[in-house]
Amino acid sequence: GILTLLNGSGRVIWSSDSTRHGQNPVAQLLDSGILVVRDAAEDKTQNYMWQSFDNPGDTTLPGTKVGINLKTSFHRSISSWKSTNDPSRGEFTWTFDTGGFLQTFIMNSSIEPYRAGPWNVRVFPNAPSRDTSWNGYNYTY
C-alpha cells in the first residue's frame, strides 16, 4: 500500500506514508485530481490506503483541505518547494495552530514571518482579504 517513486538508478526519491496495506494495491488518478493508493477490489473513499489530498504539497485543488482535524489531530499543511528544480518539501509552510485561538501562519523553518490572526468565526482578520471566499477559497471551521 505504499506508493514509491524511483529515479533512473533505482533509488527511492519519494514514497507515500501509508500505514495500511492491501492485497492488490493500485495507484489511480481520479477525475477530481486526487492521486490515491487503494486495493484494486475497493473503491470506497474511506478505504483508500493513501490519498494526495491528505498530503498537499505546494498546490491545492478544489476539495483539498488544509488545517487540523480536531477529532483525529490529523494535520494538513502546504509547503514550498525546496528549490526551483526540487519539488521536495521546502522551508516555508502554511500551517494552523490550535493552541489557544485557531490561527493560520506562514512559517520559515521556526521563524514566523506572517500570522493571519485568530479566526473570529467569519474571517482571519489579518488575511489579505477579509471575505470568507477569498480567491475562491472558503474558510470553514
TrEMBL record:
The keyword Membrane does not apply. SUPFAM superfamilies: alpha-D-mannose-specific plant lectins. This is S locus glycoprotein. It holds the Pfam family B_lectin. InterPro entries: Bulb-type_lectin_dom, Bulb-type_lectin_dom_sf. The keyword Glycoprotein applies. Signal peptide: none annotated. Keywords: Glycoprotein, Signal. It comes from Solanum tuberosum (Potato). Residues 1-50 form the Bulb-type lectin domain. The lineage of its organism: Eukaryota, Viridiplantae, Streptophyta, Embryophyta, Tracheophyta. It comes from the Eukaryota.
